[in-house]
Design brief:
This protein is an alpha/beta fold. It contains seven helices and 15 strands. The strands form four sheets. It has a five-stranded parallel β-sheet, with helices on both faces. A five-stranded antiparallel β-sheet has the order 10-9-8-12-11. The chain has a three-stranded antiparallel β-sheet with strand order 13-14-15, with no helix packed on it.
Length: about 240
C-alpha cells in the first residue's frame, strides 16, 4: 500500500479539526504538517516530499486560486472551500477534487480514493509489490485513537449517530455513520447485510436465508438486502 504524505492548509479552527480527524482515519495518508498560511506551505514543500495538499483557497495574503498558479510541479491538490464559484477554474488547474464545506467523511473518502484510482495504471509484473501491508483504520474513542486492522474486524454495528466496531479481542464505540465507512470497507471484503450491520465476509461462520453467524453472534439479514447478500454468498461458495 502506497502512503501519501500530505499537508493540511486551513486557517479555520473547526474546519482544521474536522479535516485533520478525517486524514488520521485513512491508512494511506500521512499528515506531515498543518499550515495556516502559504509561507508555511512553501517551507514544507522544500523540506518534505509532499504528495497531496488539502487546501483552503481563502488564506491570508493569497487570494482565490493564486497559490496553485505559483507551484511549478504541484502535488495532488484537494480543495476544501465554502465557495463553489471557483470550482470550474480549479479543475482547469488540474486539482484532484473540489470539496464544499462542511465536508462529510463519505465525500472526503471519495476524493482521496481518486488519487488511488489515478495511480492504479497497469504495471509490468516485475514492478508489482511483492508484499502487502495490512490495512488499518483509527477510530476516535474519547480523546484517543484506537487502531483496528481491517483483517481483525468481525462486524460493525450502527447505533444511530455511533457505530460499534467489534473484533475478537476488543470492541469500541465511536461517533460515526455506517454509511460514511461503507464505501471504504466494501473495497476490502466487507458486506452490508442490514441497515445496521456490516460484516467481514471471511469471518462468516454460518448463514441461512435470514441471518448470519459471525464471531458467535447471530446477525439478521435485512429484507431489502437479501438478494444482494445471497449473490455475494454464492460468490463465496464459488457458485
Amino acid at each position: 500500500m502506497q502512503v501519501y504524505n500530505c499537508l493540511l492548509v486551513e486557517d479555520e479552527p473547526l474546519a482544521s479539526e474536522l479535516l485533520r480527524d478525517y486524514i488520521l482515519q485513512v491508512p494511506f495518508l500521512n499528515l506531515l504538517e498543518h499550515c495556516t498560511d502559504v509561507f508555511c506551505v512553501k517551507e514544507a514543500l522544500q523540506k518534505f516530499r509532499v504528495d497531496l495538499i488539502f487546501l483552503d483557497i481563502h488564506l491570508p495574503k493569497m487570494k482565490d486560486l493564486d497559490f496553485i498558479k505559483t507551484l511549478k510541479n504541484p502535488p495532488h491538490i484537494i480543495i476544501a472551500s465554502a465557495f463553489q464559484e471557483y470550482a470550474v477554474q480549479a479543475f482547469e488547474l488540474n486539482v484532484t477534487d473540489y470539496l464544499l464545506k462542511p465536508v462529510t467523511l463519505s465525500r472526503f473518502l471519495m476524493a482521496v480514493h481518486k488519487i488511488e484510482k489515478i495511480r492504479e495504471e497497469p504495471l509490468p509484473v516485475s514492478a508489482m509489490p511483492k508484499t502487502l501491508d495490512r490495512l488499518y483504520l483509527f477510530f476516535t474513542v474519547g480523546k484517543k485513537k484506537v487502531k483496528f486492522f481491517l483483517d481483525e474486524i468481525l462486524y460493525i454495528e450502527s447505533m444511530k449517530e455511533y457505530i460499534r466496531v467489534i473484533s475478537k479481542t476488543k470492541s469500541v464505540l465511536t461517533k460515526f455513520k455506517l454509511s460514511d465507512i461503507e464505501g471504504l470497507l466494501s473495497e476490502n471484503d466487507f458486506i452490508r447485510i442490514h441497515r445496521s450491520f456490516i460484516v467481514a465476509k471471511d469471518k462468516i461462520d454460518a448463514f441461512s436465508a435470514s441471518e448470519l453467524e459471525v464471531g458467535g453472534k447471530l446477525i439478521p439479514i435485512g429484507r431489502s438486502y437479501k438478494e444482494y447478500v445471497a449473490h455475494n454468498l454464492d460468490n463465496l461458495l464459488g457458485k
